[in-house]
Design goal:
By secondary structure, this protein is an alpha+beta fold. It is 29% helix and 24% strand. A 4-stranded mixed sheet has the order 1-6-3-7. A two-stranded antiparallel sheet has the order 2-8. A two-stranded antiparallel sheet has the order 4-5. Helix 1 (5-11) packs across helix 4. It is globular and about 45 Å long.
Length: 156
């Protein structure tokens, strides 16, 4: 059975409904300071925070009013260039934005609705970020790691 990203998250609700939780897609690397991301999330009192990054324009985009996300656009061709970097913080109330169906999308269902309701904020990460969606990206990341110049490596 195939289940989309939102459907998978909804299935975890019994395990995540006790408080704030973090989620990542797992296909991007960045030196994200998780303590700073969490502190930002706790400071604004909204249901959700995404980490905004500036990669190539082939990913979903965020439209801002201050630090509030007013709109989530999947793979825009124009805009200010910030995208969801895949490091997110949520409150259990986000589960109300998912129907529980296998077709639920984290991006086009939950994040879009959260933005429309003023419940999605963005923590801007202006440092290195790279996804690993293609063989070319995998090779790039492997070269950075082998060279000892991996910007996402936070420990010796």
């Amino acid at each position: 059975m195939r289940t989309n990203t939102g459907g998978r998250l909804k299935r975890l609700e019994p395990h995540l409904s006790g408080g704030t939780f973090m989620l990542t897609y797992g296909d991007g690397v960045a030196p994200v300071q998780l303590h700073d991301l969490l502190a930002f999330h706790k400071s604004h009192g909204r249901l959700a925070t995404v980490t905004a990054v500036r990669p190539p324009a082939r990913f979903g985009g965020l439209i801002f009013k201050g630090d509030a996300v007013t709109e989530f656009q999947e793979k825009p061709q124009i805009g200010e260039g910030w995208i969801n970097g895949g490091f997110m913080v949520f409150e259990p109330g986000v589960f109300r934005y998912l129907s529980g169906g296998d077709d639920d999308s984290l991006e086009s269902d939950m994040l879009t609705r959260l933005a429309a309701d003023g419940q999605l904020m963005a923590w801007r990460h202006g440092e290195f970020w790279q996804c690993m969606d293609t063989l070319r990206e995998l090779r790039l990341l492997e070269q950075l790691w082998a060279s000892g110049a991996a910007p996402w490596k936070l420990w010796p």
